């Protein structure tokens, strides 16, 4: 019997539905200490006189860590790709969002840890807050990072992600209609049933066992090892079974800090975020600001697209430059548009740093460009399904960055959805295929963009 | 006051694998002395079903029953590198590594079976746990017998390793965005139609029906594919009409801090969902599969926004489409202030949201 293609039962399904799957929080190790965080009480401030002495002296407290305890304080999510870090593991002398971790306490029990955190003090000199990405570029905008309010490290030292293809000016000049619109998909929470949780156990042999809910065992291994400046054999990450992630558990939010506390206290430590911490302090999907102007003809061709994207990264870059790049590479959606002019910025604001979430970078582009497609179709008085089929990408067409599509399926999936909702298509659309363009479907404006699908296979 | 019905569609695409690639997955496999199969991989299962999918791939690639497979992704000591479960890569990239490892195990089984049967391994095949001579299936040895022979007779471990890596597309032209290599492992396609009911008195948008079509390349496990598609639909519905960390974005006030003040979809919000799966095999994925885990929540929001327009004739382009936003848009429509600015061939929607209206000159969106 073949397994591939069969509806075999989920490998771990029975354990899940009977509540017998062991998640991180189900692991019990004798002598485990509880962890609580001292977090920034303000959105943006300079910080001085951090004092953890009273917390450290509290009965039942075994360790307190601050930035001073971190061997490598700055290690960025994309450091492995050579992208400079912009965030300290624990705040040093500045805080840029409400809830930013500053110090951590490991104590005999949760109540003692909470009490000790309340004994930690620091002076915060509040700074003006920047929240609206549209104002980040203004001369009088509050300054978030020393180098500015947007990410400056794209290729060639560019401060934005650019796509240029064909001539947008030509497209605007030849268009019968230019339709513009603004799209703002929201920040949302990942809302995993299992909140961020980690248990770090110092072993007798000097190794550290880290029970983790990470979505990426080896990514987290690398991040912890880098901060601790130890080789990979000193750490063992135990995990692989995650109680809901959706992108929110790629960030290594707890593992490094628990490791520092476990090593300092020489005791196992567990940090389990409360639901309120999960909602308020964990990273979210980014809010995006997207402006689109499409140059179109009366008979329903899209000649060109100009687009501006402001990706609200929150206080630090984390994975946002990656997300914006992916966004830019897919900004024509499932269609072929020969003339493109895209500018995108990763903009910093004084909110919780945003991160990956299901559809990272593309969920926003799908919402904005697809809503815009329907608007344009309505403006032209063309059926929204037919407009999509007419402009659908086909084998041999090229993507925004010049890669020839080898097996696009826009045509069949749109035909299938028309069929599902009982929409009769005119003959030309009913028989359309994804095969290379010819005849009426290869108008002059689509000739120059054609590529060779064999070249990119 | 009335409830209005509307319908909208959307078509989407999504890349499989990390953008620009460079994201390895590895697997290794060993056989127990009775032929049962231990798979070690570093792929976290976040509910996406990667333990199941990789086990299915290994079972078929070796040629043994699915329930012979034990899958271990529990720790970084025994499991090799997997970049992680994100970028819709677990089935495609990690699944491909498992397939390659399993192919090596199959070769090793055939090699030892060939010695036992005194037949050229090229003339053997494995079917349901038996090694058979092609065209002469009465000449056979079971995989458990082969594993036992390897362990106790030949002094060998039947094992195999596999790795999948598409090289990192390092060159992105900073001016044009052109790349030297395809930045994706594959691209998946989907479409979505949404039917909504909009109450023009309360402003509530209720999604009543979603039709969804996905090209998944190959459905390794149709039940799990449907689970991804239906689960994604619920998250897309949340994005479309319910969820927002910052209800008055960009303000940070009124953040929901518990389930009662942050609305995720519940069972009462579930629409009817019809799912259509198309299998247009990818060139490089295991058994032709592509990734669809992430795109599963991308199609609903634009289909819902279009359906709301179809129902009540106003566009809400800030998500989620809350009752407050619907009612404000209806008020603008009643006052005659909704709709685009028209100037020659220019049709400008949403001027009030544009950087051109809000920025003090720091950034512009210049058109035409």
Structure description:
The complex is a heterodimer of chains A (457) and B (368). Chain A is α+β, with helices and mostly antiparallel strands. Chain A has 2 domains: 20-125 and 190-280, Alpha-Beta Complex (Aldehyde Oxidoreductase, domain 3), CATH 3.90.1170; 155-187 and 284-446, Aldehyde Oxidoreductase, domain 4. Chain A contains 12 helices and 15 strands. Chain A has helices at residues 13-17, 53-57, 110-118, 168-174, 217-228, 255-265, 275-280, 320-329, 362-380, 384-391, 410-420, 427-430, and strands spanning 33-39, 45-51, 61-65, 94-95, 101-107, 121-126, 161-165, 177-183, 197-202, 208-212, 235-238, 269-272, 288-296, 302-314, 339-348. In chain A, strands 3-5-1-12-9-10-11 form a 7-stranded mixed β-sheet. In chain A, strands 7-15-14-13-8 form a 5-stranded mixed β-sheet, sandwiched between helices. In chain A, strands 4-2-6 form a 3-stranded antiparallel β-sheet, with no helix packed on it. In chain A, strand 9 (197-202) and strand 10 form a beta hairpin. In chain A, helix 5 (217-228) packs across helix 6 (255-265). Chain A is globular, with a radius of gyration of 26 Å. The mean pLDDT of chain A is 96. Chain B has helices spanning 50-62, 90-117, 143-154, 222-242, 300-312, 323-335, 355-358; strands spanning 3-16, 25-31, 37-41, 69-72, 124-127, 130-133, 136-142, 159-164, 186-199, 205-215, 272-278, 341-343, 346-348. In chain B, 55% of the residues are buried. With 368 residues, chain B is of the alpha+beta class. A 4-stranded mixed β-sheet of chain B has the order 1-9-10-11. A 4-stranded mixed β-sheet of chain B has the order 4-3-2-8. In chain B, strands 5-6-7 form a 3-stranded antiparallel β-sheet. In chain B, helix 1 (50-62) runs parallel beside helix 2 (90-117). In chain B, a hairpin with a 2-residue loop joins strand 12 and strand 13 (346-348). Chain B has 7 helices and 13 strands. Chain B is 28% helix and 24% strand. Chain B has 3 domains: 3-15 and 184-326, Aldehyde oxidase/xanthine dehydrogenase, molybdopterin binding domain (Aldehyde Oxidoreductase, domain 4), CATH 3.30.365; 22-164, Aldehyde Oxidoreductase, domain 4 (2-Layer Sandwich), CATH 3.30.365.10; 338-368, no CATH class. Chains A and B meet through strand 7, strand 8, helix 5, strand 11 and helix 7 of A and strand 1, helix 1, strand 9, strand 10 and helix 4 of B. Strand 8 of chain A pairs parallel with strand 13 of chain B, so a sheet runs across the interface.
